[in-house]
Design goal:
Layout: E1 2-6, H1 15-26, H2 32-40, E2 46-53, E3 58-65, H3 71-87, H4 93-108, H5 112-126, H6 132-140, H7 144-155, E4 160-162, H8 173-180
Antiparallel strand pairs: 1-3, 1-4, 2-3
Helix pairs in contact: 1-4, 1-7, 2-3, 3-7, 4-6
């Protein structure tokens, strides 16, 4: 199952805040989704969030691989954790997400293909490749207010939903949409 939200474009002022948000929300083993859905409750074998940004728009998606008996519990937790991030960040959570994102960005420079893709995107959007120091500074500048702003943007537009398999217990789209609002 994938729940999608309208994200941000590369040149949007909230681009780095969206990246940090995705990391703390569902970007690894210390993320909110992984800890709550997989570790504490064992409701999914895989759960994570991801972003895709383009020249004029973007997407934030949440993936959950779960079984038919757990699907009715997973969606409410995904929405609950989204609202919880907007309400309060736990001690060190934002700093961990920024550190994880910076490490990921730096490690991605080791791949020739990824590096070429990043350089091409930067040339299209900014007309030049920003330095690593510039990118790190923008990630470090993301604060709690930026995270709340990003969550507000995500919740301001209707989501998309895609699910395959036995989805009979999945909440109806209108119920999910209402839960988000």
């Amino acid at each position: 199952m994938v729940l999608g939200f309208r994200g941000v474009a590369f040149d949007d002022p909230d681009f780095h805040a969206m990246q940090v948000f995705s990391t703390l929300y569902g970007g690894g083993m210390s993320s909110r989704l992984f800890q709550e859905v997989r570790e504490k409750r064992g409701l999914a074998y895989s759960v994570y969030s991801f972003t895709s940004s383009y020249f004029d728009d973007g997407t934030l998606g949440v993936y959950a691989g779960t079984g038919p008996d757990e699907i009715d519990e997973v969606m409410p937790l995904i929405v609950e954790q989204l609202h919880a991030v907007a309400d309060k960040l736990e001690g060190g959570e934002l700093a961990r997400a920024r550190t994880q994102l910076k490490a990921s960005l730096l490690m991605s420079r080791e791949s020739t293909g990824t590096r070429c893709e990043q350089l091409a995107n930067h040339m299209l959007v900014y007309g030049r490749p920003p330095s690593v120091a510039e990118i790190v500074a923008k990630v470090d500048a993301v604060d709690e207010a930026a995270i709340r702003r990003v969550v507000g943007r995500l919740l301001s537009a209707p989501p998309t939903l895609a699910a395959i398999g036995p989805t009979g217990a999945l909440e109806a789209y209108d119920a999910i949409k209402a839960r988000l609002g």
